[in-house]
Amino acid sequence: MASERTAIINGTWMDFEMRERFERAQLEAEERMMETFFSYASRWIETRTNAQGKKLSQGVKDDYFRYIKSDRLSYWADYALCAITVADVREWYSDTIQDGKLTSMARSYSMMKSVMETAVEDGIIPTNPCKVRGGGNTKTGKRLIPQPMPSLKRTLVHCRVSTFVWLLLLLPAHFDSVKSLRYEPPMSMFILIAADL
């Protein structure tokens, strides 16, 4: 009874229903803070939308699940989101990048950074621990030199090329976006190049 009077005087008194809701909300917040990276990332993949606000295609979801189950991101699978620190991420990045698979590392890091940014937006963690400068960028050292136009013309005339290759050649699309398309044409297309190329 004395604690109730003190709560009334301090202005913190709540009736039974309100106190029960408050305690339930506190418990849910504690559970969210202890959620592991793997479970949160899995939920993130299922609820993620693309730039148009639509659910991700199954191909993109499969790629994302492959990333979080990969050797790189599976390192964080059992870590609680709130336990991942900037120093831990920096050390993990430094150790993992040693294998030389730069593109794979950049994709994994970018995904982790996006997942953690959403956790910040959801109020689960205060700041994003993924702060490695240039971690999501990669330079493999391989340089592509385009063929001169006559050489390209000889190569493409009367070649059978799949729709996938057409999309990669003609559209400014990201490789993963084109790869996730599931349409298979009934037959390959013939490339006909105009003579005035």
UniProtKB/TrEMBL annotation:
The keyword Ribonucleoprotein does not apply. It comes from the Bacteria. One of its GO terms (molecular function) is DNA binding. Coiled coil: none annotated. Signal peptide: none annotated. InterPro entries: CB, DNA_brk_join_enz, Integrase_recombinase_N. Residues 35-120 form the Core-binding (CB) domain. Keywords: DNA-binding. This is Core-binding (CB) domain-containing protein. It comes from Corynebacterium deserti GIMN1.010. The lineage of its organism: Bacteria, Bacillati, Actinomycetota, Actinomycetes, Mycobacteriales.
